[in-house]
Amino acid sequence: MSLLPNSENTRYMDEHGGWSMQCLRLMLVCLLASAPAGAQTLSGQWCGWAVQTGPGDNRTEWSAILILKGPTGSMEYPSLDCGGTLTFEGTNGNVHLYRERIDYGRDRCLDGGLVGVEPVGTSMRWEWNGSGAKATALLYAPCPRPSPNARNTPDRAAIAADAN
């Protein structure tokens, strides 16, 4: 098969939108196929308190701030003084999956976990798995603004008030 136009190919292209239209369709298909599915639809900031179980019998609670910008994002854990970046890995139904890499406070946070997020109204269901631990939270938007004199930790009462 030749890529160059011959009389049969030329007649087909004339009947089906011409060469420029066929090239445009092909470019559009390639562009759509190369984009991460659904990642661009999640953008915003959510915050709240997470509960972690594991590793072992360990159970802790800490503050969490999720910031998403399409296929990338970040996690901040103000009460643990650590945080890092998120990279989109794919979807599983309505759940968007991101790989977390801790950038600072590595001695206080587990690294390399898989974060799953699922929109629930204006909130975000959030789950973290890795290193023998699991953490879950329902994060809320908008995040309350901390007072200038307070630590950068979301206040439980303010989060609950904003959620209602």
Notes on the protein architecture:
This protein has an eight-stranded antiparallel barrel with strand order 1-2-3-4-5-6-7-8. It is 21% helix and 43% strand. The chain has three helices and eight strands. With 164 residues, it is of the alpha+beta class. It has two domains: 1-34; 39-144 and 156-163, Lipocalin, CATH 2.40.128. It is globular and about 35 Å long. A hairpin with a 5-residue loop joins strand 1 (43-53) and strand 2 (59-69).
Strand content: 35-45%
| CATH 2nd-level architecture of the largest domain | Beta Barrel
Query: How does the overall form come out from the CA principal axes?
Result: globular
Main sheet overview: 8 strands, antiparallel, barrel
CATH third-level topology of the largest domain: Lipocalin
Distance between the termini: 64 Å
**Extended strand count:** 8
**Given this structure, which CATH class of the largest domain is correct?**
Mainly Beta
Total helices: the number is 3
Radius of gyration: 23 Å
Main-sheet strand order equals: 1-2-3-4-5-6-7-8
The overall pLDDT, averaged over residues, is: 77
Share in helix: 10-25%
Provide the succession of SSEs: HHEEEEEEEEH
